[in-house]
Every structure is written in C-alpha cells, then in structure tokens.
Design a protein that fits this description.
This protein has a single domain, classed as Rossmann fold (3-Layer(aba) Sandwich). The protein is built from nine helices and eight strands. Strands 2-6-1-7-8 form a five-stranded parallel beta sheet. A three-stranded antiparallel beta sheet has the order 3-4-5, covered by helices on one side. Strand 3 and strand 4 form a beta hairpin. The protein binds cytidine-5'-monophosphate. The site of cytidine-5'-monophosphate (C5P) has 14 residues, from helix 2, helix 4 and helix 8.
C-alpha cells in the first residue's frame, strides 16, 4: 500500500496579518504540529545580536543560523535551554530578523530545520515562503492579508497587552519597511503561491478565519482522497 504523505497546511502573509494566531488555532483544532518559521529567523537574529555579529557579516549570520540550538515547548521558545519567548518578540529583534532574512545563506541554513517539523499526524506552518519554497506540495496553502492600518492596530494591542510600550505611528512605519523588504528581496520574496487561497482578514475575527481554513482543508483532503497521486 502506498504511504500517505504527512499533510501540511501553509499559512503565509505579511507581518501582523494574523497568521500566527490562525495557524496556531488550526493546529490545535486538527491536533497537528505547528511551525512558527518567523521564530527561527528571530532566534537567529537574537543569537547573532548576543554574539555581536554585524548585520553585514553574512558568514557569521549563516553560522548563527546553522548552529541554532533551539527547541519549542507549547508556546515557549528556548535558545540553548533559556526561555526567550518574550526576548525574540522585541521590535529590535524583529527588525534584525527581517534584515538577515534577505540573505540566501541564512535561508539555506534554516531550510532543513524547517522541513524537520513535518511529522505525523500533520503540520501547520506559518511564515512568508512556506507555500512557495519550503512546502511547495502542501495539502493546503493559504495567504492572509489585512490592511496596513488593521495590522498596525493588532500589533499595537498585542504589545500593549504584553506591557510593552509602542506608538501606532512607529509600528506602521516599521510594518511598511518590513513588508517592502520581504516583498522585494530576490530570494523567497513574500508573495502568494499560485495555488494559494487568499484570505483578507481586516474585518474578520480569528475564529472566522480558522473556520474558513478548516473548511478549505476538509475540501482539499476530499480532493486528495479522490486523486491520491495529485500531491
Ligand atoms: O513572522 P515574524 O514577524 O515573526 O518574522 C520575523 C521576520 O522573519 C520577518 O520580518 C521576515 O522578514 C522573516 N521571515 C522570513 N521567512 C519566513 C518567516 C519569517 O523571511 N518564512
């Protein structure tokens, strides 16, 4: 009997489009593993910053990515056994992560690590290039969008809720810069896969978005069961 491939759902989109929340909830609903690929770029950034690796030292940054000693436990992220869940969310780390994510050697160094998250019974992976580069044969690909205003407001509420300080103006400026960098880079730019479902979430609750993704997934599984060789 042929082996059934381990299903993957990819959820890509720009910063603060809600993909983390939606991907996590979909994974919980299906009992699947969850990969927050942005966390790997943030972990690489934090590790490099702590080692005082310069943002233009491509070799040093690739080394930090390749030597990443990290693990995930529930919603917590560890770097060499230190809980860095809050530390990697700092705006400075996000900014550094977005800069180093333009480097092919860094992306290459994180490639195999990301593939390794695919294990039974299935995986929900969120990021920028999950459907285009890392899991091009995913069962379901979703690309989330939301207006820059809606995204800045969400990020603002998140940060304030965590007791961090922020201004809407600075957040919006930073989001625009990051979007521009992610979309214009030569390697793995932010864009929907050709076969991705687009979901505009500006006026949607997370629950509505989750319900839509689950409905698309159920339909995709039905199609796969009818044509098992398609993926
Ligand atoms: O999603 P998050 O904001 O945590 O990601 C941090 C940065 O990592 C992003 O700004 C983006 O530049 C980069 N990234 C990427 N490819 C991914 C995930 C994140 O380039 N798959």
């Amino acid at each position: 009997m042929p082996l059934t491939p381990i299903p993957v759902i990819t959820i890509d989109g720009p910063t603060a489009s809600g993909k983390g929340t939606v991907a996590h909830l979909v994974a919980v609903r299906l009992g699947f593993h969850y990969l927050d690929s942005g966390a790997l770029y943030r972990l690489t950034a934090l590790s490099a910053m702590r080692k005082h690796v310069e943002p233009n030292d491509e070799h040093g940054l690739a080394k930090a990515a390749a030597g990443l000693n990290c693990h995930f436990k529930g919603e917590h992220v560890f770097l060499s056994n230190e809980d860095v869940t809050a530390a990697i969310r700092a705006e400075a780390v996000g900014k550094f992560a977005s800069c180093i994510a333009t480097l092919p050697t860094v992306r290459q160094a994180l490639y195999a690590l990301q593939l390794g998250f695919r294990s039974p019974p299935g995986l929900v992976a969120d990021g920028r290039d999950m459907g285009t580069v890392i899991f091009p044969r995913a069962t379901l690909k979703v690309f989330l969008t939301a207006t820059a205003e809606a995204r800045a407001e969400r990020r603002f509420k998140q940060l304030i809720g965590k007791g961090m300080s922020a201004t809407l103006h600075d957040l919006q400026k930073d989001l625009n810069e990051r979007d521009e960098r992610d979309a214009s880079r030569i390697i793995a730019p932010l864009r929907p896969a050709e076969d991705a479902h687009l979901l505009e979430t500006s006026n949607m609750t997370a629950e509505d978005a989750v319900a839509q993704v689950l409905a698309w997934y159920a339909a995709a599984r039905k199609r796969e069961d009818a044509h098992p060789a398609a993926k």
